[in-house]
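Hey team,

Sharing the Serine hydrolase domain-containing protein run so nobody has to redo it. Sequence (351 residues) first:
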Amino acid sequence: MLVGLMTAAALAVGPSVVASPKHLQEGLDGVAAIGALAEVRDGGRVWRGSSGVAELGSSRKVPVAGRFRIGSVTKTFVATVVLRLVAERRLGLDDSVERWLPGVVPNGENITVRQLLNHTSGLYDFKDTLPMPPSPEFYALRYRTWTAPEQIERALAHPPVFEEPGSRYDYSNTNYLLVGEIIQKVTGRTYAEEIERRLIRPLHLHGTTLPGTSPYIKGPHPHGYLPKDGGMVDYTELNPTLFGAGGDMISTTRDLNRFFAALLGGRLLPAELLAEMKTPGTANGRYGLGLSWHDTTCKVRVYGNDGDALAYQAYSFATEDTRRQATVAVTPRLPVNPDDSVEAFLDRAFC
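Structure output:
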């Protein structure tokens, strides 16, 4: 079941989209997933489409305005809050972890906030302490409530993956669990409260929430699935404290495009801190302070982030001038990885 539309306002203004609606819909149909939805923006024009089904065993269309778990795209929101605190001189990128969380992290005096944000701390990833699907132990944790301190403790029971902080890039969700704790120490409010008051409300991101312990996705949404016992089990519901500050948010394609337009357009951070966000943690890297980038096949560089929330995957990127944007969310048919087919769609959107 396929859906494609151009809004009335979009049809009225701006140059034609980079790709035709038909070309974009064909690209979305080619994404390897149970269901997919996307929003592509080019100047004043907007294309929204969906493909596949919202729920296995039905012919119900994926809602084009549907909500989904955004996984590690959450990290860009968290990093933006940190950089706003830096702009307010309440926190320094080169402050040590030990300064804000004394006694929590071994060698914390030599690990900086910057190294947490750009994944060069070397700290062991909490995710790697957990059983993964399709193991029965994983499914038993579905509704468990986690706290950041216990997740951090589990991770730090393991030695760092390298000894010298800042010397290498190694993606670790533990970094952002710690950043969430630092935000609370600096502000007296949780990272979720700070994202809500600093980003969600001012930008009118009406479809974006930090769900806390609620396992539900409220409003229209596609169902997500994981492999189990040779088939697929509906895994739409889960306790999002599993992801915490590293990936617990729910959003829409519209809201993610709106957020990245504001961020990359310079409306959320001073120019020098946005430049810091785009600076890789290691030479020739593609990840800065909660922001990643890649070059399309037509050599257009796009900035944003992608996220994996088990039964949902999200991708949101924009050109540096924010004129062109594309956000895609999929419910993957695991173990097939949708990344390559999503990249092909993004090439259609940006090339």
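The first helix runs from residue 8 to 12.

Ping me if you want the raw files.
A.
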